Amino acid sequence: MDLPGRDDTDVPRVWLDLSEPPVVVNQGRGSHGVRSLVDEFQLPQLWSLHLYGYHATLEVAAHSYQIAPGTVSLVPPVERIRYVYRGPSKHLYAHFRPAVGRDTSLDHKEELALIMSPGAELPMITDLMESAVAAAPVSPARTRADIWSVLLRLADRSLLPRASRPSRDHLRVALSHIESRLPEPVSVPEVAAAAGISPGHLARVFAAEMNETVVGYIRRRRIEHARRLLASSTMSIGAIAVSVGYPDLQAFNKACRRVTGRSPRQLRDG
After folding, report:
1. 238 within some domain
2. pLDDT, tens only, 48-100
3. What parts of the sequence cross the membrane (predicted)?
4. 177, 216, 259, 270 — which has fewest CB within 10 A?
5. What is the DSSP letter of 238?
6. CATH of the domain at 39
């Protein structure tokens, strides 16, 4: 195991060889905090990657960290892990080991953090984690590729200049809130209230971090979800429209053309 260092936010750093896809041993959707509000376990030979959908306390090596929806943790092998939940809690996870036969020096390794906020990468990382879980029964290679992509994206973010802590936290909360409400009506003031900032401040954060408006981002994420459903399911176009927040089929068609340049029917037909 690589001993972690500490950055200015006192979050341990970890180093991982990402020159080849990791070997994913298991993955899935975890559900905890129902029968017990405390879980404790240890994975002696496996790294633990989690994408959280809840608030809880994570304890690793006698240190406590607060996790929230949209937070990612990456815990090395050997470390004892303890969770203190606030209630029913769901997350996406993967347990893996690096590709075997690699040099153990730091020369080939990427630096990541034990606790990370994906920021603008949250939607893509969520999609990749979902894809990894769905692909596991039929395409383990796809699962490995998806988890590898998640780790590489997280490593790339660690190289970017750090945004201010408040802006990063506000963006993470806003993105998570939007993801959870895509099938429902959602407004900019509502998202801003969830993030604890004004609508104007939220607009500035999105412009700086996402290079788009809040409304444009919501539209894009809805259509990205719809596009996957059109390609992979037999749901009717009307049902898909409703499932991504467009009860009006004409509005769905308009949004689809605006984001992709194609109609829903054209997307389904390939």
Report:
1. no
2. 999 998 899 999 988 899 988 889 999 999 788 999 999 999 999 999 999 86
3. none
4. 270
5. H
6. 2.60.120.10
